[in-house]
Description:
Blueprint: E1 12-17, E2 23-25, E3 36-39, H1 52-60, H2 63-68
Bound molecules: zinc ion.
Amino acid sequence: xxxxxxxxxxxxxxxxxxxxxxxxxxxxGTRPGRGAYLCRADGAAGAPSPAPECARRALERRxxxxxxxxxxxxxxxxxxxxxxxx
Length: 86
Ligand SMILES: [Zn+2]
């Protein structure tokens, strides 16, 4: 969805629009409704987090709004673009 690459679902992180159109992560992939997928960050242990470059592209191109077909508010903590550091 962000970079346009296609990957197996195991390598993706799912997002859904929660109450009020706030974007939320759906790590288990079980939330109902339409989902938006981003590449999973490589080598991330524990909770899956999206690949920063993929997330950035999705944000720039309003990919979440398009994938979920509704206005979406993206809070900073859902996608931490600053954690890209290295
Ligand atoms: Zn991607």
